[in-house]
Amino acid sequence: MTDYLRFPAEWEPQSAVLIAWPHEGTDWAERLAEVEETYIALVAAITRFQRAIVCVADDDVQAYARARLSSVRIDMSRVDFVEVPYDDTWLRDSGPISLRGKDGFRLLDFRFTGWGGKFEASRDDQLIEALHSKGVFGDAQTRAIDFALEGGAIDTDGAGTLLTTWQCLHERHPEKTRDELTAKLSDWLAQNRVLWLDHGYLEGDDTDAHVDTLARFAAPDAIVFQACDDPADSHYEELKAMADEIAALRTAYGTPYRLFPLPWAKPIVDGGRRLAASYANFLIVNGAVLMPAYGDAADAAAAGVLAQAFPAHEIVQVRCRPLIWQNGSLHCITMQLPLGLVA
């Protein structure tokens, strides 16, 4: 492979979306039935537009998942199962970062530490190599990098600009300066520049402020972000400060970004714990944006904002309230695979 590499934006053509089926050996066990319904709806939505590759823990999990998906008339010709071990199902953070080269793909295999050692993650840290050994990624090269980085912590415009948060990267690597982290990310991810957000968080988020819960590129000149319009809410000041930061950012050409603030859902509390209901945690597929819906009045307004940000895409709502019980949402459980990566 030549040295020329590029980190594609999520809206570029895709081969498939990679997910892992929840089962009783994952953290979903207590509410497995609810979460399965979200996964079924997610696979149904993905396969309207492209393939879904579903990781399963063993033959029994595969047979069960196949039966559940088949029962709702999903196009099973667009579903591929692969048996691999995994600790949990947050593939945005344990899955591959795909760089496109002139002669093929290079998959970056960063260390996955369970968000800074919060959870057991040894099998998840080996997931990329396990999938590669199964032939999922064809003849793509892999590169193991001894550096903790999760896919949800970064977002690219596909044209050399990376968006990330200082809180997350500093939490993972407190010994590194911002300049040092900028240099490493730029080198590994083939970026010309890194835009850092110093503000923004969601209660109930244990990722240390992943950017995919806060702000995302919608085009090289557009950013969609989670806003809060309730001055009485505990997030108001921090998300307002983040909105001001984003408004001050400039494109690579020196122009302001087109901005698309997302509405704020009413607080969702479970057992006295505030859950992180972010509309910024959407998934882009071929021709559509799959949007997390929380059964809130703001769902429809969020769909309207995303329709403005992605005018060429269909907006599909996927019920994600069960997911936020485990502190993540739709984007967190998926990883897109660029066109040509999967045979």
What does this 3D model show about the protein?
This protein is α/β, with parallel strands linked by helices. It has one domain: L-arginine/glycine Amidinotransferase, Chain A. Helices cover 26% and strands 27% of the residues. The protein is built from 10 helices and 19 strands. The strands form 6 sheets. It has a 4-stranded mixed β-sheet with strand order 1-5-6-7, with helices on one face. The protein has a 4-stranded mixed β-sheet with strand order 4-3-2-19. A 3-stranded mixed β-sheet has the order 8-9-10, sandwiched between helices. The mean pLDDT is 96.
The beta-strand count equals 19
Q: Calculate Rg over CA atoms.
A: 19 Å
Helix content: 25-40%
Kindly report the average pLDDT value: 96
CATH topology: L-arginine/glycine Amidinotransferase, Chain A
Unreliable segments of 5+ consecutive residues: none
Question: How far is it from the N-terminal to the C-terminal residue, by CA?
Answer: 18 Å
**Name of the level-1 CATH class:** Alpha Beta
What is the string of SSEs from the N terminus onward?
A: EEHEHEHEEHHEEEHHEEEHEEEEEHEHE
Largest sheet: 4 strands, mixed
For this entry, what is the oligomeric state of its chains? Answer: single chain
Number of domains: 1
Q: What structural class should be given to the helix and strand makeup?
A: alpha/beta
Globally, the shape reads: globular
GO biological process, one term: putrescine biosynthetic process
Organism: Luteimonas gilva
Keywords: Hydrolase
GO molecular function, one term: agmatine deiminase activity
